[in-house]
Write a structure and sequence with these properties.
This is Dihydrolipoamide dehydrogenase. With 499 residues, this protein is an alpha/beta fold. The chain is built from 16 helices and 21 strands. Bound molecules: flavin-adenine dinucleotide (FAD) and nicotinamide-adenine-dinucleotide (NAD).
């Protein structure tokens, strides 16, 4: 890690942010921009956080060549150029390394200092109201004070479930998979969620023999059921082995040699589940995330630590991201740490609100504006960059029914569109909208197929804007784009349009 933190002559700032991921950067910026307020970000690893160096960015860098090759293999005229060639794995890893700036955060620190935000390196812990203690790498401890606010943005770490032998086997976690330097010949992935499915996509795409062992009945189980089915079908067609409803009983690795992140951590590993077992060269744990709330001094602030413990470690917040149970409007929690939506773009959305609230409170303005209140609706867009991609927003039909809403789900096969037939051969995909039958507004949408990710924002806009299907009827998609899925879904819903 380069020592490029700026020298900070003061020990008091208006706003102190613990954790320098994009939400932390955004909250510092929004709380101070256009004012003479000061802010500092305290970061123990790299400014840019998990997303920039170990999560979103490297994973998407690894996935992109796989989707390009898959499209090329299914497009006559281009197909013959790529033939049966596999990926140039070394080049893929080199590009990934460039995208994560070889784990050098200089450009992110330069951005922060460029907009007037200071950066302090070290592990921060709350030490009472508006007070933070920072332990630097050399063990020295510095006390920092916040005039206005402390914002917690410490994120999450990979969960390693208490499976006998698993921890001792030194399994890969997501950081190893996204930053792999050695490519195992065979891998077992424990988990069937987003991390498991994206990692399976790039590992298989790079020639690894992949076995997925997930405890849920479907892959990507938080989505509409057809999403997990289409992904599992394609995984199996590509030669992966997918076990669902499977409980891992034990993991055994006689030779452990953890040589570092992204390197194979030892000899062969055997994973036992039910009556089955698989022996592989590496095991990747992708079984969810644990909030980084244990070692940040929450116990020094009233009953916040107890409240977090009651919520699996997540720090509960109000609609302005103030930590619940803390008087004086000075402590906030954004990003993964509050458990509302474990996604970078949602953490940044929370940061924009939280920063504006801190600014409004500092200036004695009303905090209740159109910009400063969490919508409270479940409008969380997410793209899972698997093969095929899964893009979803809002409620699934099952979730809407469970919430007591009267809904209708409408589905359509994406391969029936002129737009997808032009994109490539062998297009397999499906879309679904969930419609509130009382208001005719959209509550949820899911698109599964190659390159569907950019279809999602139209659905997000429609849901946030509470646009009715009758209004959407007049939003005409261009021919022959994949956006014509909207027309087909509306036709299926109205079938035929009523007068
Ligand atoms: C493999 C993978 C791929 C993903 N892909 C996507 C994607 O494509 N799109 C998407 O939206 N989301 C994705 N996510 C989720 C996304 O990475 C997280 O939602 C996001 O990183 C959360 O941001 P955050 O600010 O809450 O925390 P983090 O990014 O975890 O950052 C927390 C920061 O706080 C620092 N910190 C922690 N404790 C302290 C302390 N005590 N003192 C000082 N510093 C501290 C950490 O070092 C870290 O830099 C992915 C996650 C994984 C695991
Ligand atoms: N493209 C993206 O937006 C993206 C990509 C990666 C991660 N993320 C975010 O990161 C978060 C974490 O992802 P994740 O995949 O680790 O968690 P997850 O909660 O999405 O999935 C965890 C999966 O592991 C399974 N599981 C749990 N314990 C298990 C066990 N003992 N044996 C077998 N299976 C087990 C669960 O059934 C579940 O399917 C997600 O909430 C997601 O929002 C987002």
């Amino acid at each position: 890690m380069p020592d490029n933190s700026n020298s900070t002559p003061t020990d008091t700032w208006d706003v102190v942010v613990i954790g320098g991921a994009p939400p932390g950067e955004n909250v510092a910026q929004y709380a101070t921009q256009g004012s003479d307020r000061t802010a500092v970000i305290i970061e123990k690893e790299l400014v840019g956080g998990e997303c920039s160096f170990w999560a979103c960015m490297p994973s998407k860098a690894l996935l992109r060549p796989i989707s390009v090759l898959d499209n090329a293999r299914n497009l006559p005229g281009v197909q013959s150029l790529v033939g049966d060639h596999s990926l140039d794995n070394a080049a893929v890893l080199r590009r990934r390394d460039e995208i994560v700036h070889h784990h050098d955060d200089t450009s992110q620190v330069d951005w922060a200092t460029g907009v007037g935000i200071d950066v302090v390196r070290g592990h921060a812990r709350l030490a009472g109201e508006r007070t933070v203690e920072v332990t630097a790498a050399d063990g020295s401890v510095r006390t920092i004070h916040a005039r206005l606010a402390v914002v917690l943005d410490t994120g999450t770490t990979a969960t390693v479930p208490p499976i006998p032998g698993l921890r001792e086997a030194r399994p890969w976690i997501s950081r190893d998979a996204t930053n792999m330097h050695e490519i195992p010949r065979r891998i077992a992935i424990i988990g069937g969620g987003v991390v498991a499915c994206e990692a399976a996509t790039w590992l298989a795409g790079m020639g690894v023999q992949v076995t997925i062992i997930g405890s849920a009945p479907k892959l990507l189980a938080r989505n509409e059921e057809f999403a997990g089915d289409l992904v599992a079908d394609n995984f199996r067609a590509k030669g992966m082995t997918v076990h669902l409803n499977a409980r891992v009983d034990a993991v055994s690795r006689p030779q452990v040699n953890d040589a570092g992140e992204g390197l194979i951590h030892g000899g062969e590993v055997t994973v036992t589940f039910g009556d089955s077992s698989v022996t592989v060269d590496e095991v990747l744990v992708a079984a969810g995330r644990t909030p980084a709330s244990r070692d940040i001094g929450l116990e020094t602030i009233g009953s916040v630590a107890e409240a977090a413990a009651a919520h699996r470690g997540f720090v509960t917040v109000d609609k302005h991201f103030g930590v619940e149970g803390v008087d004086g409007d000075w402590l906030y929690a954004i990003g993964d740490l509050n458990g509302k939506a474990l996604l970078t773009h949602m953490g940044k959305y929370q940061a924009r609100i939280c920063g504006a609230v801190i600014a409004a409170r500092a200036e004695g303005r009303d905090v209740q504006t159109p910009w400063t209140t969490d919508s409270g609706d479940d409008v969380v867009p997410q793209v899972t960059f698997t093969d095929p991609e899964v893009a979803s927003v809002g409620l699934t039909e099952a979730a809407a029914r469970a919430a007591g809403l009267t809904v209708r789900g409408v589905e359509y096969d994406l391969s029936w569109l002129a737009g997808t037939s032009l994109q490539r051969d062998n297009y397999v995909g499906r879309a679904k909208i969930v419609v509130d039958e009382d208001t005719h507004a959209l509550l949820g949408a899911t698109f599964v197929g190659p390159d569907v990710s950019d279809l999602l924002h139209a659905a997000t806009v429609a849901i946030v804007g509470k646009v009715t299907l009758e209004q959407l009827w007049h939003a005409v998609p261009s021919y022959p784009t994949v956006s014509e899925i909207w027309l087909r879904l509306l036709e299926t819903y109205f079938n035929p349009p009523s007068s």
